[in-house]
Amino acid sequence: xxxxxxPKLKVATxxxxxxxxxxxxxxxxxxxxxxxxxxxxxxxxxLTDIKHCGPCDIGYIEGGVCNAENVQVLREFRANCRTLxxxxxxxxxxxxxxQRNHLPLSAVLDEIYQSxxxxxxxxxxxxxxxxxxxxxxxxxxxxxxxxxxxxxxCPPSADAIWKALNDIIAGREPNLxxxxxxxx
Length: 184
What we know:
Blueprint: E1 9-15, H1 21-27, H2 32-39, E2 40-42, E3 56-62, E4 65-67, H3 68-80, E5 81-87, H4 88-93, H5 105-115, E6 134-139, E7 149-151, H6 158-169
Parallel strand pairs: 1-2, 1-3, 3-5, 5-7
Antiparallel strand pairs: 4-6
């Protein structure tokens, strides 16, 4: 475990268009979370009930960008994070949500709401101001904001996340190497 010479670093997390699997891998560091909280203070994360990110040292973000709300959350998150880590396939390349990118959005919506199997007659595509406006394609995080580090995987292992966080906390470039990166 890295050592923190001064005040604790503040860490925040957020999930956009994805499955929350990368957050589950963060939680899968299990009892090492106790070591981690000796070095960092968690802002917005699955470990707190904080809804908006304040200024922090490290931002951990998973999921792609598929709607206007994702763009807003991402830009606000980036503005508050000194260092931003893009975690997992969805954040790095759009992942499974980006499978719709090869089709026009109108065709996807039509298939889901109007012409697909098991659709009740008279269904319409939702058009409510409370719903976030869908983007024409799903974007990886780095196409919208600057990203400092990437932790690949679907999801990355708890050990890869542990190693990357420890390297960053210690002021080192994360070096995951063979054995910590997987794509299954």
